[in-house]
Amino acid sequence: MTLTQTALITKRAILGFIIFSILGTVSFIGYKIWYAGYLASLPPRQDLPDTKFGILPQPDFPASKVPSSSFSYSLDTATGGLPAFGKLIKVYFMPKASATFLAPEKGRALAEKFKITGSPETLSETKQRFTQDNRILTVELDTGNFTYQTDATPSATTLEDDQRLTQDFKNFLQQIGVLKEGLDSDRIKIKPLKFDGSQFNVTDSKPEASGALINLWPGDLDKMPIVTSSFDKPLVQAEIINSARVLENIRSLKFIFWPVDTSTYATYKLKTPDKAFDELKSDKGVIIVKPGSSQVSITSIYLGFYESENYTPYLQPVFVFEGPGFVAYVSALTDEFLSH
Question: Is 239 helix (H, G, I), strand (E, B) or coil?
């Protein structure tokens, strides 16, 4: 083969490579354009719930004293309409401890921290009552929840400031061994109480107050608040005199705490806000705070997790409809996943 022939073959090879490269590039670009159009033509992907817990029990709402359909509702939110939410939501598992042979010992240990000694009165297999002088402690042996009452009356000492009351109350709970993870949140509300000689009443005048009602909620979960059957009353609540530093100043204490296993959850379909609002109007909601008028203005709609005073195995979401002098709940899960 001569040099001329070799040069000709080389030129043809280079030209072929260039043509092949151009055609390959054009084909690749064309494919990408086609594929992008193909993806755009597909229906949007729908995330499916895993519903790992199966059919769930209905939320343990309190009995409504008035049907939710008894009122006329107007939407007076910031946007004038209903908010938008996602399509799926989490439901969390709430484990419950069972009573063991050590439970009575734990009950007596708790009673000693309230300076109550002696044998308890057995109310049931899982409930005991300890009494001494004017102090009464009732303990649930399986859950560790309890109520405490005494008839202590205030002295002339003034009420401490809210920050001090908050810290001292949490310290007291820690000292008796019940400050659980989740209760160390900043969601706490203190209401001043005035003593009228026989009982305490809420007052707006802090200088006249000699007691306080301390309300302690668990922290938010998934940026959603925990709500209860009384809305403004959590499951941990204390009535104290002057300060919360010592036991003698604790007039009453209700302690109900349900641990939430945040690592064990399932996803479920979320009702649309329109569906939840329709259910509120058709008597499928529960009125928590009864309004004084048949005309109800709804100014806020959001999602919360509902906790009952009674144990339930799952922490379920609810729609909260709120307005001046009005609060109502509607289950947030679609009906197909709730027992009937």
Answer: strand
Same domain? 232 vs 171: yes
In the chain, beta strands by DSSP E: 72-75, 88-93, 121-124, 127-132, 135-140, 146-149, 188-195, 200-202, 211-216, 226-227, 236-241, 250-255, 261-269, 286-289, 295-298, 300-306, 314-323, 326-331
Contact criterion met (CB below 8 Å) for 262 and 92 = yes
Q: What single DSSP character describes residue 161?
A: P
pLDDT in tens, 118-168: 899 999 988 999 999 999 999 999 899 999 999 877 766 678 889 999 999
| Assigned domain for 58 exists | no
Write the DSSP symbol of residue 224.
B
Most confidently modeled range among 24-33, 52-61, 157-166, 181-190: 52-61
- Which letter, b or e, does each residue of 120-132 get, where b requires 16 or more Cβ atoms within 10 Å of its Cβ? beeeeeebbebee
The pTM score is: 0.83
Residues 243 and 189 in one domain: yes
Boundaries of domain holding 310: 68-93+262-337
Contacts of 240 (CB under 8 A, 6+ apart): 165, 169, 211, 212, 214, 249, 250, 251
Domain count within the chain:
3
**What would the two tokens of residue 85 be?**
């939410």
Name the token pair of 11. 């030129």
Q: Could you tell me if 218 and 153 lie in one domain?
A: yes
The secondary structure of 95-146 as a DSSP string is ------TTHHHHHHHHHHHTT--SPPEEEETTEEEEEETTEEEEEETTT--E
| Residues 242, 147 share a domain | yes
Q: Note whether residue 325 is domain-resident.
A: yes
237 contacts 309 by C-beta, under 8 angstroms: no
- 150 near 252, Cβ under 8 Å? yes
* Amino acid letter, 31: Y
